[in-house]
Amino acid sequence: MPVTEHISRTVNAASRKAILAAATNGRVRSVVSRYGMRLGGSRFVAGEELDHCLDVLAGLNARGLKANTTLLGEDVRSADETRAVTDAFRTILDRIAERQLRVNVALKLTHLGLLIDEELAYENVASVVDHAASLDNFVRIDMEQSTLVGATLRIYGRLRESGRESVGCVLQSYLYRSPEDLEALLPFAPNLRLVKGAYLEPEEVAYPRKQDVDAAYVRMMARALSGGAYLAIATHDERIIDRAIEFTEQFEIARDRFEFQMLYGVRPQLQLSLVERGYSVLVATPYGPEWYPYLMRRLAERPANVLFVLRNLRG
Hints:
disordered N terminus; alpha/beta; 2 domains; TIM Barrel; disordered C terminus
């Protein structure tokens, strides 16, 4: 490997670790949150209120893009608060239906009580999934840090075994365990989102090198598509997107068997170019006042975005 490339990778890895560490630092969070959306969060987050977010979602639909949304939040420690969050997600689904938007919902189980009790989280998410089904909509259970993967997949499995189909989950290619998890899920003919992974994980459980994460992603993508899953290919990496297109064309996988997913504020022209080519593209468009951890994970995925934030801070 050339020396300059090695230095670049080392600097990026160090920057990513520092940003992710800041995501959980209460003092840093307090300072950063003081500047609100002005800091740069508005590039990645569709406002702090649902009404504004719904307008953003309608604009995406008007450009031929599908979307999902979520009320940002995680690590809730109060059972009463989790029930309020559950009610909020039902309201989001109602408002989406009222405006007839092509938008579904994503949520984190720690927002619904997973850190308190697995059964509480199951009851809450089942309530949201049932409400989504009654509105002909869909709920995606996001994946969180590696210590929660087992519980998250158990809850997803229970939902599917109970006959609920309006629900999907997420796998992260940087975790060593994910190919085995994929094999366990395939009998459900699941709706999966495949991501690389955005949490700071030890080398004992996750690939530390980007090239290994990317290679695992491509392998899992091919296996999911060939194994009967509906796959949300969630990446901004054009090399992987091109590989996905080549694979689906080579094996004649219909375009209604997969979609591309990207983040609000990231590569918008690429999103539109894929739509123009006839591919389904969904834009993940979160909202809410608890935007700080989400923003920090977006910055960690591409540390160069820190410069964007600093320019906004100075302005």
